[in-house]
Amino acid sequence: MKNKRESPASDGTTAQPRFHQRAAEIQAYGTVNHLLPLELEETVRLEMTAQLNQLLADTMTLRDLYKKSHWQVAGPTFYQLHLLFDKHFDEQVELVDSIAERIQLLGGVSIAMAHDVAEMTRIERPPRGREAIPVQLSRLLDAHQVIIGQVRKLARRAGELGDDGTTDLVVSEILRRNELQAWFLSEHLVDAPLVHAEPVHAK
Ligand SMILES: [Fe+2]
User: Fold this and answer.
1) For 123-164, how does the pLDDT look when each residue is reduced to its tens digit (9 = 90+)?
2) Which residues contact 59 (CB under 8 A, 6 or more apart)?
3) How far is the CA of 83 from the centre of ligand 1 (A)?
4) CA 53–ligand 1 middle distance (angstroms)
5) Which of 45, 46, 51, 146 could form a cystine bridge with 106, CB 3.0-4.6 A?
6) Which residues, 6 or more positions from 116, have their beta carbon under 8 angstroms from its beta carbon?
7) pLDDT category, 200, cuts 50, 70, 90?
């Protein structure tokens, strides 16, 4: 007996969506497409995409550390830091997209999912619970330091290999933004008086 729930056309097409599909990957992680009109050798693109994926994993981790800090911050400066952490989060979201799309543009495959990021990142894992502001700031600054150190090396290597687009991205966008954010955080760790200035004693 014919199945009445479906009425395929004579050529086999049907309006029924095909759910739960799986198939082999169309490109493996860690590979690059062979032929692209970029005037960059495959070996160069392999090395650059590998390094950019490390930078991506660390940047995604820093991005999420900012959101954790935004949610969990406590204390008299709650409002100011709550807003600052979210501003930096938004900026890191943009950097994540720029790095990931650079990897795809070079013919590679971007790391994407949280469990893969967790395996790759070199940024220290924070506890699930809440931490005091000085610890939050210190963790964020340590993460910036990891990224800034890598970016400087990556920029030099990209320059050596002739990948000027990657050099430009990592210096103009990634390095400059991370340096600026690190400055904004660092100034919060200066033990400057809020109410009582130290009096200057006459000699
Ligand atoms: Fe929020």
Assistant:
1) 999 999 999 999 999 999 999 999 999 999 999 999 999 999
2) 92, 95, 96, 99, 147, 174
3) 8
4) 27
5) 45
6) 57
7) confident
- Prediction pTM value: 0.92
Please tell me the distance from the alpha carbon of residue 63 to that of residue 57, in angstroms, as a whole number: 10
Contact 138, 131 (CB under 8 A): no
Distance 71 CA to ligand 1 centre (A): 7
Q: How many whole angstroms separate alpha carbon 174 and alpha carbon 92?
A: 9
What are the tens digits of pLDDT across the range 9-65?
888 889 999 999 999 999 999 999 988 899 999 999 999 999 999 999 999 999 999
What spacing in Å lies between the alpha carbon of 72 and ligand 1's midpoint? 10
Structure-token pair, residue 60: 């995604």
Contact status, residue 119 vs residue 41, Cβ threshold 8 Å: no
- Neighbouring C-beta atoms of residue 36, cutoff 10 Å: 13
**pLDDT value, residue 4:** 57
86 Cα: distance to centroid of ligand 1 (angstroms) = 7
Contact (CB, 8 A) for 73 and 85: yes
What stretch of H or E contains 185?
helix 176-186
Distance 69 CA to ligand 1 centre (A): 10
Expressed in angstroms and rounded, the spacing between residue 146 Cα and the centre of ligand 1 is 26
DSSP helix/strand/coil, 113 = coil
